[in-house]
Structures are given as C-alpha cells and as structure tokens.
Design a protein that fits this description.
339 residues, alpha/beta, Nucleotidyltransferase, domain 5, 2 domains, 9 helices, 42% helix, 19% strand, globular, binds 5'-O-[(R)-(carboxyoxy)(hydroxy)phosphoryl]adenosine
Amino acid sequence: MDTIILGIESSCDDTSAAVIRNGVLLSNVVASQAVHESYGGVVPELASRAHQQNIVPVVHEALKRAGVEKEQLSAIAFTRGPGLMGSLLVGVSFAKGLARSLNIPMIDVNHLQAHVLAHFVKESEEDTDQPKFPFLCLLVSGGNSQIILVKAYNDMEVIGQTIDDAAGEAIDKCSKVMGFGYPGGPIIDRLARQGNPKAFTFSKPHIPEYNYSFSGLKTSFLYSLRDWLKDDPNFIENHKEDLAASLEATVVDILMDKLRKASKALKIKEVAVAGGVSANTGLRNAFHDHAKRFGWKIYIPKFSFTTDNAAMIAITGHYKFQDKDFCSIDKPAYSRVTI
Ligand code: KG4
C-alpha cells in the first residue's frame, strides 16, 4: 500500500505544505511573507497572523497539485519546533485537527532534523543521489550553525555548534549595518560576485573543537566600518562589492575550517550542507573546491530545499512513519530544542 504523507511547515515566516508518496515528492507549496521586509526582520505577531491566512489555501493547493484526496493520506507530519511559538502553533494545531478528523497518525518533526533529511527528498523514482551514512552535514541558517554527524535517518549527533550568533544572522546584521535590505544574505551574495574577497580582513574566532562563533565578526565588521566612514562618508557606496565579498569569504572560511577538521578527524568524506545559507554561492563554491582537493563526495540541496519548506517535513514524516514513530495529540509545540 502507498505511504502518502502531508507535511506542514510554519516555524518562522514561510507557510508551506507538501505531499510525498513512497518518498517521492508530489507537491511542495510555499507562501512567503513579504510583510516583514519593511521591518528589517521577522515580526512574530505578523508572522502568526499571516500563517493563519495562508494555511488553508496552502494545504489545499498542495493536495490539489499532488492529485491526492485528503482521505488518501497515511499520516500528517508537522514542524513541532524549534521556531517562533506563535507561528508554530498555527501549523501544529491545524495538523493535529486535520489528522484527528481523518483518524490518521500525526507525526511531530524537529525542524533542524528535517533540514538535514531534505537531502533525501526524491523528485522522481530515478533520483538516487543521496548521502550515505554516516555523513557530516553543515547546517547553516538564520538561527543555526551546526556540524551534525548523521548516522541514520533517526540518529543524528550535533558535534559542533555556534556558541553565540548563527552565520546567517551575522551576514544579515552586517548587511543591515550597511543599509541594505532584508534578508541580507541574498544581497551580500549578489554583491560579492562583483567584489574582491581579499580587499578587507575581519577577525576570525579561535573557538575550541568544532564549535563556531560569529559575534566577534559582527563587532569587527561594525568597528572597521565606523573607522572607514570617518575618513570617507561614501565608503559603503564606493566599496559595497568588496565589503560583501570580504565578509562572505570570512564567513565561508570560518565554516569550512571546522568542517574540514571534523571530516579529517572522523575520516568521513560524505559531506552535505543544509539550511538557508547553503544557497550562498561562495559557500557552494567552497564545497566544490573541497570535493576536488580532499576527495569529498558533496551534497548541496536544490535552492527550493535550502530555505524553509514542507518537503523536508514530509520526508522526515515518511521515515518516522516507517518506524511507527507517531505523536499524541497532547504534545505541545516547542520553541527551542536541539537535534
Ligand atoms: O534556513 P532559513 O531559511 O531560515 C531561518 O533560519 O530563519 O535561513 C535564512 C537565512 C537568512 O539569514 C538569510 O540571509 C540566509 O539564510 N540566506 C543567505 C542566502 N540566501 C538566504 N545567506 C547567504 N547567501 C545567500 N544566497
């Protein structure tokens, strides 16, 4: 019998629903929220209101595009956390209510675990290029910077993580300081393509083991900029490409340095990247470079699976369904949790 999973994601500012049949993606609908742009960051109250408006049409559209009736669903998987509580509550409550009305299992999904398992979303039966266990996954987003040792679908260990800010947050903040739009990541990426990555140097952290720190880079960027602006009030406008390229190169170096150390020490050459920052061109180039230099087999997700999406929730639900790892209705959403 077919296993058909509806996945629902609402942890931050994207409302998404996806349908997966026997591990193959049938639909993945994402409604992003432009309302936050003018505030320079996600406004939690506005995010949960937008989720309320989007959730029904998004789920309806995902089922329609998949050609699946809700009565055919085997289970409903939903992001239980981590994320913004008001946002999570919309998806969690909707998923529980729908699963209960259809009398099918509900499956709670850890959003971070789902980012890693996004690598297992198949777009067709022939799609077999997936990481082999054990592999390392660099998870880099607006809220996380982690190195995860993935031993199985349901067995992951965080071996390194940021002790303060995430890589994406640091890029977004530096972009904001320069007066660019939100989110800064794609803007920095675009500008960096025309800049010199060696034009400026910013401080890099010395943190033990496989952990990261990005707050020092933020401060170094801010203080350097303040000094340069004293001499030249148009410094940012005159050097924006070089500033972006140098910032991006520093972040990528910090990320790859620890990942290389982990790969060497653990003797693992299957290496994946996940999360919103994995859309970054400099980081993707660094992965290709490492594949050539160190013989890594690399896994870089399609753009649509890097940012928040329900396909990754549905595929995680698929594997949890196989393990009969279901959730009871009394399990609440959680805003903070690790893998
Ligand atoms: O995983 P994600 O969509 O969700 C959150 O963590 O909220 O990641 C969002 C992060 C933001 O910091 C955004 O600026 C960053 O991913 N990002 C990028 C790029 N595209 C998105 N950073 C660098 N280069 C990009 N092309």
